[in-house]
Amino acid sequence: MDIFLQQIINGLTLGSIYAVVALGYTMVYGIIQLINFAHGEVVMIGAMVTFSVITALAGSGLPPLVILFAGVMAAIPVCMAVGYTMERVAYRPLRRAPRLAPLITAIGISIILQHVAMIIWSRNNLPFPQIIQVVPYHVTSAEDGATITNVQIAIMSISVIMMAGLVFLVHRTKLGIAMRATSQNQLVAGLMGIDINRIIALTFVIGAGLGAVAGAMQGTYYGIAHYQMGFVLGLKAFSAAVLGGIGNLGGAMLGGILLGLIEALGAGYVGDFTGGVFGSNYQDVFAFLVLIAVLVFRPSGLLGERVGDRA
User: Fold this and answer.
1) pLDDT(282) > 60
2) Which residues pair with 137 in a beta bridge?
3) Percent helix, strand, coil in the chain (nearest 5)?
4) Contact 255, 22 (CB under 8 A)
5) Is the pLDDT of residue 213 over 90?
6) SS3 for 279?
């Protein structure tokens, strides 16, 4: 029972990160029906910038929370600038092109960003400075039972706050109304006075900002950063968005949490179910098995694409 509870906690932590990254995918798809496969690399850049700032300030004597906050605050505008540049330079000229063209472009941008990061930060695994002391809290009475750390609590709490803030933005603000109008019909929205180019660019910028925070959380949680870290994370988040219903904010959140739980429980019990043939190192397989199953049995996702009210 303790193992099950521990895997649930780990899954909720992973799922919170996946959900935040999946929101970036689902926002862009909801507006212009584009799968931005370079979004994972934006998350990676967020982690790398956070790493650089924390490393630079580690010996400054500042409180650890201030250093971490400074790293995240530096990563957010950098990722937003990357997101805006991608939309303005690569995607906007292809907006009326066949749908395969921007998809191939997204893959190309992903490769470019990976190699730019490799040039700047090297190809080596970078140990993320653990400036925050990890404090475990026992969930069960057993001394060696399930625990939850302050880092896990912070990741889940920040993810919930960001998801709630995004839902409020989309459904309760003028910008959100403009986003939903653009999602339904760009031509009519433009005739109503909405600046379509601005709304689409802001969608990329907001998604990139969320990705920056997700990258910082990923690096802090695993204690490592790498120029290819965004590739698999991006594919998992895309799987989560498809699982919940791409184009649907609630679906992205649900898909991320479920995928994190599936991956954690699978990693914890796959050895028992297979008699030790497969171990926890096969945990990445579960995300893609889920993606295949969803595409085969329910292509619209668990909640489906919200027609007429997409983000």
Assistant:
1) yes
2) 148
3) 75, 5, 25
4) yes
5) yes
6) coil
